[in-house]
Design brief:
The protein is built from 9 helices and 5 strands, in the order E-H-E-H-E-H-H-E-H-E-H-H-H-H. By secondary structure, it is of the alpha/beta class. It starts with a strand and ends with a helix.
Length: 229
């Protein structure tokens, strides 16, 4: 039986690490990238380049620009400046309903192609305060999709319990740390590689890399325990 997976793929550090992790586990992988009018839309081109580089045969870019009109966020409006988040609630880079919409559409696509797994790179440990990055959210949505489509589907979140240092360690485990470092786009301001060094996404990425490089052995041991590598 052919094992198929659909990956919600942005071309950033997390989704690219998920793709690298999934490649040896599945016979057929489909990548889906969403165009929702994001200000860092350069990620779409990066995602296409990376999926091609990894030999992914099917890569869909879906137009979800309606989200841009409904969800007011600094990531969907050039009129709202991107500022560093604080501990006071949800950051202004949160796009309401984004993961609900993306995972639902990816699951519908999985239904159509006969895949029983949808993979997303969201992480509870390094979610920047986003309410749609928690394990409980994923489990509830997974149950709703299963019931609503009468289809046995599993949303996998390989990075859910990992911090950014461990995510870097996972890329290194597969020998792809340089690719993640230089060829992915995580930055909210649309700068590939290490990014703008100012937004939340870049800060989390840089902090994780620094922690990994300072304690490779410890971080790798923690990663292996969490993922059973």
């Amino acid at each position: 039986m052919t094992r198929k997976a659909v990956i919600v793929f942005s071309g950033g550090q997390d989704s690219t690490t998920c793709l690298i992790h999934a490649l040896p586990q599945y016979d057929e992988i489909h990548c889906i990238t969403f165009d929702y009018g994001q200000r860092h839309r350069a990620e779409i081109d990066v995602a296409q380049q990376l999926s091609k580089q990894f030999g992914v045969k099917v890569h869909k870019v879906l137009d979800t620009t309606l989200l841009n009109e409904l969800a007011i966020s600094s990531l969907t409006s050039n009129n709202i400046p991107i500022v560093r988040s604080t501990d006071n609630g949800v950051p202004d880079t949160f796009v309401p309903g984004r993961n609900i919409l993306f995972l639902t559409l990816a699951s519908i696509y999985a239904y159509q192609v006969g895949a029983d797994t949808v993979i997303t790179g969201i992480s509870e440990a390094e979610s920047s305060g986003y309410p749609d990055c928690g394990d409980e959210f994923v489990k509830v949505l997974n149950s709703a999709l299963h019931l609503g489509m009468d289809y046995k589907l599993r949303i996998e979140t390989p990075l859910m319990r990992l911090n950014k240092a461990e995510t870097w360690a996972l890329a290194d485990y597969y020998g792809q740390i340089d690719l993640i470092s230089y060829h992915t786009l995580t930055c909210y301001n649309g700068i590939k590689g290490s990014g703008c060094a100012d937004c939340d996404a870049c800060a989390l990425r840089a902090k994780g890399l620094s922690e990994f490089l300072k304690d490779r052995v410890g971080v790798e041991s923690s990663l292996k325990l969490k993922l059973g590598l």
